[in-house]
Amino acid sequence: MGRALLVIDVQNEYFTGALPITHPAGHLERILEVMDAARGKVPTVVIQHHSEGMPIFRRGSTEWELHPEVAARPRDLLIQKSLPGSFTHTPLEEWLRERGIDTVAIAGYMTHMCCDTTARQAVHRGFKSEFLSDATGTLPLSNVGGAVTAEELQRSILAAQAQLLSEVLPSNRWIERL
């Protein structure tokens, strides 16, 4: 099995910007641990989101930049994206296929948006998905659809992913497999 680690949108917007990630505790530390464990064993793709015409993820802003700890770590590929799915209008699928990769491990932000969308896209394209339950993170939501805590949202997305899409597992179990 060829495996790759996808580190999705670990950008300053989630730390010093408008969208502070609050759950689960230790999310950034787990992301950094899986990146470190993958080094030399599994290709790492870092994905960076940008939004045109919106006040968040403005290309070139401090909030758009990768978190310094992620930026300082080695990676095999950096992909820019402008939609929630990491496969949409990016070279990700071609890059994975050229390397014989059939399984992607999902880490990063936000669990309920870009991580969930990317995992679904991967499965639709014939890849296996490993969704790292403690190396993804989210925040509370309140909008016209209702209000949910970050804990409820995380638990709901993980349950949905585990139903038919991804193998949901904690980062320490994923690291043991390497």
Net shape:
globular
Poorly predicted runs: none
Q: How many distinct domains?
A: 1
Q: What structural category do the secondary elements indicate? A: alpha/beta
Beta-strand percentage range: 15-25%
Q: Could you spell the SSE succession in H and E letters?
A: EHEHEHEHEEEHEH
- What is the CATH fold-level name? Rossmann fold
In spatial order, strands of the major sheet run: 3-2-1-4-5-8
| Tally of DSSP helical segments | 6
Q: Report the oligomer.
A: single chain
Largest β sheet strand count, sense and barrel closure: 6 strands, parallel
State Rg: 15 Å
CATH H level: which superfamily?
Isochorismatase-like
CATH architecture: 3-Layer(aba) Sandwich
Compute the number of strand runs.
Answer: 8
Distance between the termini: 11 Å
Helix content: 25-40%
CATH top level assignment: Alpha Beta
Quote the average pLDDT. Answer: 97
Structural account:
The structure is a single chain. This protein has about 180 residues and is α/β, with parallel strands linked by helices. It has a single domain, classed as Isochorismatase-like (Rossmann fold, 3-Layer(aba) Sandwich). The chain contains 6 helices and 8 strands, in the order βαβαβαβαβββαβα. The protein has helices spanning about 25-40, 70, 90-100, 110-125, 150-165, 170-175, and strands at about 5-10, 45-50, 75-80, 105-110, 130-135, 140-145, 145-150, 165-170. The strands form 2 sheets. The chain has a 6-stranded parallel sheet. It has a two-stranded antiparallel ribbon with strand order 6-7. Helix 4 (about 110-125) packs parallel to helix 5 (about 150-165). The model has no long low-confidence stretch (mean pLDDT about 95).
